[in-house]
């Protein structure tokens, strides 16, 4: 079984475009949990263009009464971000190498080139007993460096898989991700995945063994506009529970 963690950034972006609490991020969180979702992801950015610090605290407080729901906070490991994470005390923190103002995540960590920064951030998370995860490209050589900073998990950046799904390259790219996941398993590192996974390509990706969690936001929201939230969530849970 793979945990479906719903990224609610797009709900916050829609809300912020009107200047009032509609749609309610917390209301959407509660809705998808009631539909059976077991994980919530947020990626607060410094400009608060979607998820705000207030959202993080409100979701954290709401989930205190729901110990079976995992809260995952993603972001670049600045001091400000890490302070927010420690205040919110989520189950997991995923470190992403985004620059300030970046539109969306588009690459994973080069651990060897950022070792000192990552070690300091991961030590702070470990001291607070927050599970750590590094956003990383599907490259066994990059994953081989992860034990040097003692991250608990990796999140495979799946844009390349998603963009090649349905093309002549899909089998080669799938094998690349399978090899990356195999390297992580050999090293005892937990495996998450995310970015552009959707109802069409997710089942095939989860043929890779031992994927613990998938974080899905943009596609899920777009699909929900077309089909309705309840129907979309039920389809995702069929895939991830199999």
UniProtKB/TrEMBL annotation:
Entry binding sites for 3-amino-2-oxopropyl phosphate: 7, 18, 196, 217-218
CDD domains registered for this protein in UniProt: PNPsynthase
One cellular component term from this protein's GO annotations in UniProt: cytosol
GO terms classed as biological process: pyridoxine biosynthetic process
Principal location listed in the UniProt entry: cytoplasm
SUPFAM superfamilies xref list: Pyridoxine 5'-phosphate synthase (SSF63892)
Transmembrane annotation, as ranges: none
Assigned protein family: Belongs to the PNP synthase family.
Subunit: Homooctamer; tetramer of dimers.
Protein name stated in the entry: Pyridoxine 5'-phosphate synthase
Species for this entry: SAR86 cluster bacterium
Taxonomic lineage from the root: Bacteria, Pseudomonadati, Pseudomonadota, Gammaproteobacteria, SAR86 cluster
Underlying gene: pdxJ
């Amino acid at each position: 079984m793979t945990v479906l963690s719903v990224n609610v950034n797009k709900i916050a972006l829609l809300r912020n475009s009107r200047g009032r609490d509609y749609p309610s991020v917390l209301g959407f969180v509660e809705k998808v949990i009631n539909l059976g979702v077991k994980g919530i992801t947020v990626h607060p950015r410094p400009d608060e263009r979607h998820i705000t610090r207030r959202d993080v605290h409100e979701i954290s407080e709401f989930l205190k009464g729901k110990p079976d729901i995992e809260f995952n906070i993603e972001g670049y490991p600045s001091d400000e971000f890490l302070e927010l994470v420690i205040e919110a005390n989520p189950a997991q923190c995923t470190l992403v190498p985004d620059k300030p103002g970046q539109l969306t995540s588009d690459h994973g960590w080069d651990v060897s080139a950022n070792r000192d920064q990552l070690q300091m951030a991961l030590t702070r998370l470990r001291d607070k007993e927050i599970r750590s995860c590094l956003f990383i490209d599907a490259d066994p050589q990059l994953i081989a460096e992860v034990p040097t900073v003692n991250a608990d998990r990796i999140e495979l950046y799946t844009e390349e898989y998603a963009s090649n799904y349905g093309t002549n390259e899909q089998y080669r790219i799938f094998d690349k991700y399978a090899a990356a996941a195999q390297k992580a398993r050999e090293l005892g590192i937990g495996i998450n995945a995310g970015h552009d996974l959707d109802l069409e390509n997710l089942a095939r990706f989860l043929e890779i063994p031992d994927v613990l969690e998938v974080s899905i936001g943009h596609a899920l929201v777009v699909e929900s506009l077309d089909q309705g939230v309840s129907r979309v969530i039920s389809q995702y849970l069929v895939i991830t529970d199999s």
